[in-house]
Amino acid sequence: MKDTEGYVTADGRQIGGTLMEMRNITLRFGGVVAIQDISFDIHEGEVRAIIGPNGAGKSSMLNVISGFYTPSEGEVWYQGAKRPPMKPYEVARQGVARTFQNIALFEGMTVLDNVMTGRLTHMNAGVVSQALWWGKARNEEMENREKVERVIDFLEIQNIRKTPVGRLPYGLKKRVELARALAAEPSLLLLDEPMAGMNVEEKEDMSRFILDVNDEFGTTICLIEHDMGVVMDLSDRVVVMDYGKKIGDGTPDEVRNNQDVIDAYLGVPH
Amino acid sequence: QELYTPNLAYRTGPFAATGIPLMNGQADYMTMLNQRDGGIGGATIDFEECETGYSTEKGVECYEKTKGEAIVTQPWSTGITLQVLPKTNVDEIPILAPGYGFSPMADGTVFQWAFNMPAGYWDGADMIIQHLEAEGSLEGKKIAFLHLDHPFGKEPLPVMEMHAENKGFELLPIPVGLNEMQNQSAQWLQIRRERPDYVVMWGWGAMNAGAITEAVKTKFPMENFVGVWWAGHDADLKLVGEDGKGYKSISWSFPNLDAPLMKEIKEHVIDAGLSQTNEEEMQGVFYGRGLVMSAILAEGIKNAQENFGTADIDATQLRWGLENINLTQERIVELGMEGMVPPFSTSCANHTGHSGGWMLEWDGAKFVKASDLIMPNVDAYADLIQNAAEEYATSNAPWDRNEECSVSN
Amino acid sequence: MLYRTAGQFKTSYIADQALFPVRQDAFLLGIILIFGWVIFPMTASEFTVQTLLIPILIYALAAMGLNILTGFAGQLSLGTGAFMGVGAYACYKIITIFPELNPVIAILLSGFFSAGIGVAFGIPSLRIKGFYLAIATLAAQFFLAWLFEKWSWLYNYNASGAIQVPNSEAFGIFVMGPQAASITEYYIVLFVVTLLTVLCINLTRGNLGRTWKATRDMDIAAELIGINLLKSKLTAFAVSSYIVGVAGALYVFMWKGAAEPNVFYIQLSFQVLFIAIIGGLGSIMGNYLGAILIVGLPVVLNVVAGTQVFEMSTGSAILLIVLIAVATFLFGVARNLWGMGAAIGFGAVTLIYGYAQLHGFRIESAMIEHINVMIIGALIIFFLIIEPHGLNQLWRLIREKLIIWPFPH
Amino acid sequence: MLDATRTNETLLEVNNIEVIYNHVILVLKGVSLTVKKGGITALLGGNGAGKTTTLKAISNLLHSERGEVTKGSILYQGERVQDLDPAALVKRGVIQVMEGRHCFGHLTVEENLLTGAYTRKDGKAAIQNDLELVYSYFPRLKERRKSQAGYTSGGEQQMTAIGRALMSRPQTILLDEPSMGLAPQLVEQIFEIVKSVNENEGVSFLLAEQNTNVALRYAHEGYILENGRVVMDGPASELRENQDVKEFYLGVSDEGRKSFRNVRSYRRRKRWLA
Amino acid sequence: MLNDIFIAPFVDMVEAPDFLMQVLWEGLVSGILYALIALGFVLIFRSSRIFNFAQGIMVVFAALTLVGLFAMGVPAWLSVGLTLVVMFVLAVVIERVVLRPLVGQPDIILFMATIGITLFLIGLGETIFGGENKVMITEELGIPTGDTVLEPFGGLLILQHLDITVVIVATLLVLALLAFLNYTQMGRAIRALGDDHQAALSVGISLQTIWVLVWFIAGIIALVTGIAWGARAGVSFALEVIAYKALPVLMLGGLESITGAIVGGLMIGILEKLFEIYWGQPLLGGNTETWFAFVLALIVLLFRPQGLFGERIIERV
Ligand SMILES: Nc1ncnc2c1ncn2[C@@H]1O[C@H](COP(=O)(O)OP(=O)(O)OP(=O)(O)O)[C@@H](O)[C@H]1O
Ligand SMILES: Nc1ncnc2c1ncn2[C@@H]1O[C@H](COP(=O)(O)OP(=O)(O)OP(=O)(O)O)[C@@H](O)[C@H]1O
Ligand SMILES: [Mg+2]
Ligand SMILES: [Mg+2]
Predict the structure, then answer these.
(1) CATH number, residue A9
(2) Rounded to the nearest whole angstrom, what is the distance from the C-alpha of residue A239 to the centroid of ligand 3?
(3) What positions does the domain ABC transporter occupy (chain D) (predicted)?
(4) Residue E165 CA neighbour count, 13 Å, CB half
């Protein structure tokens, strides 16, 4: 790995070494090149943002990281090792959790159950034990339930615990999705437009949660967001993409003043 | 007084087409008795139908529903018969399955509650082979056995196989799946490829019409095509009309339109508006057969009433009645059914009667008798019957037999 | 305020995770259990046990098995009938090979065979989804049904191709076969069904249940959060087929007493699917409600249609009152759904039917059957419309209303 | 071209409606609002306030979600439209762009746009014209015209959905969260398009938005919904100046814009409805 | 054994080419008939994602109505017209009573509802027409019934005129449908509807009109199918089971594709016949037609999960 050194952020937080590195990733769908030869890295403990116009390939990049797409070319390095081609669920088991741009909750289940699914990677009682509701299954259920309740408290969704998610308004769904991802106690958390469709107040709440997660659990966060206020305030470093190419990478200030970025995305300086 | 003799009918489902005329014939005969004579021996007959749609499941349901008061059960399909057979042995109700059911039921010592007179499938198979043999030795010939892939269709196989071995012909069973009844081109292609000398058909419901049309299409010589009695339904042949000329079906019944019975039926039932049948159907083989079936049951009831001196007989008494049917030629004439059924008799050991039958032939518009009475050669497969019955009894142990009855009486 | 939940607090997650967080539900369940285990067996007639209680339980169990697969894991299956068949044939082989084995154990063992076959046919589910997956299960359905016909080893080379339940003893009484008392069979069925229901409830509320539901709701997301889809789907196929197989074994060995291959045709699959859907996909209790409706209703309709008011027993009188209540309810709903016109039409039909009943107008059995088929078809549509999520959801809504009652919201 | 200026004529009037989902979930508890002809009316409010529900109630799309309007009335140009089917409403010139895009995934982008013209009877040429117009608004769509909509990015889908609505030559567009998931300059762009469509074609808009900031900049009138009730309404300019609106919806306090980094360090004021 | 599987059948084929041709022809004709039923399915599926199980019974119902009307003394061609009216009324009623209240429900619920329709129509049909087998009024409709005997390779090949007619009519019908779906505004609306009910509603596509139309077209197809099958095998409720055959055809061809229905139908018709004659009957005891189509479809699906011509399944997050 090239750069395992950490760095210190503007507001004085210590960031760790490289957690994940994308090397020369290219992704094609038939004729469409969604990602073209992009490299960047994510350090342990930082908040990394990916921005860019619509259709730039941001979500696709997240999908590559979480193993949903296999890159046509390029390598993914994770925790110091090259990641072999693997199934998405194996990636998840390595501690990568995510939320989705178009909410992907399990609509038929309650909030509690949805969040509990986040713990699946940590539970392994056998079928018989579960069928009898005895021994390991029961204990495991209770232990994990407690962890989940902590996440639920943390995200302030106690009162909707037993509501089927299908009935929830959009913003709350996003929060439940975050809860599900958090319940997995990931080392890398991927957020695809966590604040889309929220008003300022809700964005504030969401920001608070993201920062708290980052602070309290030291979770590394990689997020995509279109609200520049949020991106600039929250992130430590920003990657900018346009038409599948990387056009900028650096601290919010650097990016903000990058002429390419202004032309392609921001329009006016923010 | 009323005697409850429910009929597990099927006027719905894929076999309805063949079921309806039979059910009508059966019902009309009983209605006629009720109208003309006030029933049998003073007791009216409650011939209620319970609809099964030929489904075994519904059949069992009907059996359970009716068995409380019924003095007889008429299950009306080989599947249902097989299913209720062990139950009747416990519930002690006679099963009357004229011309269908399980052939070993002939052995009354084992199947004390089951009856399938006047002839069983093994009789039928034997009669058909006799008929074919009469046209020339079967040695080295090939007979295709086109059958419904269902217990009913497989029923005659043991006798067919026995004959194949003894007479040196090649037997080629060709099954027709329940879902393929209307689409038999594969079967008929096979027949075309194998070029059998004869096709013997054990078909039912929509299968017969399918087979007959296919036979016409592939230009199979109709005179070499013979069916069991259930494959001789006028409507099926009407589909092809003239082209079906020469097709044959063995039968233990015949619609003698001139018989006095037909006039009585017309007068007391049809004209009185008590029947669901129509003019055309009435002339068919199946309607006539329905009449015969009920006549047999009525005969059994009458026997029991006379023997036990009461009109209000119970199931056990009816069994005696059915075991002592003696339908002589005189009696047949007396019933006004001349030429409609061959004479036969039953005993406690012989529950089938082995009446024999006529070969009917389609003349382009209707079935006509094409042979004298053919009698089955029961001795040839008496052992088969006995063994099969024994085997059944052992695998269903404990099985109550009729200990008082021995094969000789 | 029948369903007042106020004042019931949970102080631990264990308590919250209990089967019935609301006390009234537990109470209700108690009542149902008492009815099932004590009151029904004491009061029901043989007919009721045979045509209502036993089949309802068995069908509910089969539907529950299907529900695990389709309702919980989201994999549509149209092969239930064949998997029931695998269970039944496996049980038959086990019982004939080891006649000494306790029949209940044999039944529980036979499920493992269907589970194995189920898993085999479930493998394509990883690639094939939705209706396309139904094809895989249909392939199982048709292929297995064909195998039941062709592989004579399965039915011990019986001539008829049917399997027959032998009389077997356990604990000194006959527990299966024609000699077994209905009530014994009922208790065995009830025991097995209760046992499997409890296991199912546990499975579906635990980790595995969540895995299934996640797979059902959004398989891509499920995989991305760490669920191994293959494992999730195959466990669902295994558990589901196990239950379905046991239901199949019960179906033949505790209820029908014999079975031909065509019993396990696709019609059976649909029947079970109806129950699961009408009852409510993704619920356990719904299967019982669905079975009561789909299995019970035709029987009840038949009984009512066959009974004239003047010769009515108290039992049918109660039935009639219940039916009137149901009709009133349906009338109300119809008005909501399709407007007054439809409701009046509906009412008129009901009245005519009732009038016909009163005047002893007896409809032909076939007509009753036709009308029954129509009514069932209409009811399926009707229930789907008033509550697409099934009777279970309907019950839940009623319950939710009761909880907040008497406040409207 | 219609008169570009906004009139005082009432186009759409919603009177005190109540909406219940699934027979038990009461979502709107008496919402009233009016949309002026030729105006842009914004419907603001937090998550679950009932904005979408209100729009769906107007366009009669509630039915397929098992929701129903149980009280109140909805008048469009003085005509009661509650019991019409959605298609009839489109014929009268009211079209909704649904939240979450709802493109026809298997149709190409262009086919998607063309379905928008389904109710039109004015001939191929006119439709072709409008297609070009839409492409001129959204050049990106022109590039992707032959791709299946299901595979386009979120933003592209949003453009497709709006373009599709424009294709029906509507009189009124109900726009549900047009800015969601769009890049900032695209948000501006879309609102500019809304504005120009409004001014040039005289189309009235009722838009539900979370992005209060932009919405109030472009709207003439605004309603703020909370918990199924209208808690505040008035001209957009007034709302923009309102203290509460500033704090809760615009994210500015007296000290100017707050940083999202500091969210943890300040406390909120009490809401209207707790 | 290997010889039986891999060599003997082909030797048979070569030795009796006329017979092989007959097998292929029979396969072709039944394939066309399967395809006709599948067409009705496809149309409805496309417009509503409804897996219309009732297509089979609609075939029976249409044929019964036609025959029933004729039996009442209505002239043959007028009966056809009246039957079309009946099918139209049926479409309207189904739309009004069943589909409209179920808009937006999950696929499987609508699938179930069509099974409900199936049961209802079976009951209704039997109540009205009775369960007896009926004869299709083939001659009265002027459909040729004779046959032509060819003698290729010195063998025998029998071609029924009826079958030839069916092949021609089916081809025309398919071409007409393809044109309708691809070149009309309505066709596009039908496809849009299949993707997203809500969105379709929101752009003013009237579900009611389209559904009635589509079900009516399915009704017309059902009538054509009914006449064709009825002329071959008589009209009875047993025909309903042939609808099952349309299922693998659909899966194989792809649920949304007209072309798929045709290709799938022909493939299944021909291959199942070949398999049955050359492998099934000699080696497996026959009757393999009950499952062959399904297993074939399953194998194809393993390689192409959306069927040969189905729309690509969109998987995105
Ligand atoms: N599975 C796929 N098949 C074909 N094309 C795809 C696929 N996934 C993405 N694309 C294409 O790749 C491009 C990038 O899409 P992506 O969803 O990554 O954009 P994005 O940056 O997330 O945009 P937005 O901000 O609008 O969400 C788009 O043009 C999209 O059409
Ligand atoms: N189909 C439904 N069934 C039950 N409840 C629903 C349904 N749709 C919406 N709701 C409920 O109605 C309320 C209002 O939802 P609505 O979607 O109208 O809010 P909104 O203001 O549009 O929110 P957002 O900004 O998140 O889109 C929410 O509490 C939601 O849970
Ligand atoms: Mg994206
Ligand atoms: Mg909304």
Answers:
(1) 3.40.50.300
(2) 14
(3) 12-252
(4) 19
Residue A154 and residue A195 in one domain: no
Quote the pLDDT of residue D272.
Answer: 44
- Is E202 an interface residue toward D (CB < 8 Å)? yes
Mean pLDDT by 10 residues, chain A (270 residues): 66 81 88 87 90 87 89 87 86 88 85 87 78 77 84 84 81 87 89 82 84 86 88 88 88 84 67
Nearest CA-CA partner of C65 in C293, C266, C291, C221? C291
Q: Are residues A72 and A119 in the same domain?
A: no
Range of the domain at A146: 111-185
Considering only alpha carbons, which residue of chain E is nearest residue B213?
E233
ipTM score assigned to the predicted complex: 0.85
Q: Of A155, A185, A215, at which residue does a domain stop?
A: A185
- Who wins on pLDDT, D267 or E201? E201
Chains B and A touch (3+ CB pairs under 8 A): no
Residues A74 and A120 in one domain: no
Structure tokens at A67: 């193993």
Ligand 1 atom closest to the Cα of residue A34 is 12
- Among D147, D148, D153, D158, which residue has the most ligand 1 atoms within 8 Å of its CB, making it the best to mutate? D153
Same domain, A23 and A65: yes
> CA-CA distance, B149 to D53, in Å (whole number)?
59
On whether residue A265 sits in a domain, the answer given is yes
Question: What is the count of structural domains for chain A?
Answer: 2
Nearest CA in chain D to C393: D22
Tell me the C-alpha distance between E124 and E119, whole Å.
Answer: 8
CA dihedral over C7, C12, C16, C18, signed as positive or negative: negative
Residues A126, A210 within the same domain: no
Q: Which of A35, A50, A59 to mutate to test the pocket of ligand 1 (most atoms within 8 A of CB)?
A: A59
Residue E301: partners with Cβ closer than 8 Å, 6 or more residues away: C124, C127, C128, C132, C135, C136, E251, E252, E307
On the question of pLDDT at C316 being above 70, the answer is no
- Considering CB atoms only, which of D21, D181, D210 is closest to A101? D181
Same domain, A206 and A181: no
Q: Which domains does chain E have, with CATH numbers?
A: 2-303 (1.10.3470)
C66 pLDDT above the threshold of 90: yes
Select from C263, C268, C271, C288 the least CA-distant residue to C380: C271
Residues A173 and A199 in one domain: no
* Neighbouring C-beta atoms of residue B382, cutoff 10 Å: 14
pTM above 0.90, yes or no: no
**Is residue A40 in some structural domain?**
yes
Task: Please write the tens of the pLDDT for every residue from C214-250.
Answer: 998 888 888 888 888 888 999 999 999 999 999 999 9
Q: How many CB pairs under 8 A join C and D?
A: 8
The strand pair at A73-78 and B358-362 is best described as unpaired
Contacts of E8 (CB under 8 A, 6+ apart): E282
Task: Out of B1-15, C306-320, E18-32, pick the least confident.
Answer: C306-320
Encoding tokens for residue C72? Answer: 């919980």
Three-state SS at C295: helix
Q: Going from the N-terminus, what domains does chain C have, and what CATH number goes with each?
A: 21-287 (1.10.3470), 301-404 (no CATH)
As a whole number of angstroms, the distance between CA B325 and CA B341 comes to: 14
Number of Cβ atoms within 10 Å of the Cβ of C22: 15
What does the alpha-carbon distance between residue C205 and residue B40 come to, in Å, rounded to a whole number?
65
Find the residue in C nearest to E249 (Cα): C135
Note which residues in 105-134 of chain A have CB less than 8 A from chain D.
Answer: none
Residue A106 lies in a domain: no
**Where is the domain boundary, A185, A201, A225?**
A185
pLDDT digits (tens, 9 = 90+) for D81-127: 888 888 888 888 899 998 877 888 888 899 899 888 888 888 888 88
Q: Are residues A137 and A192 in the same domain?
A: no
Burial of D246 from C-beta contacts in 10 A (0-12 / 13-18 / 19+): middle
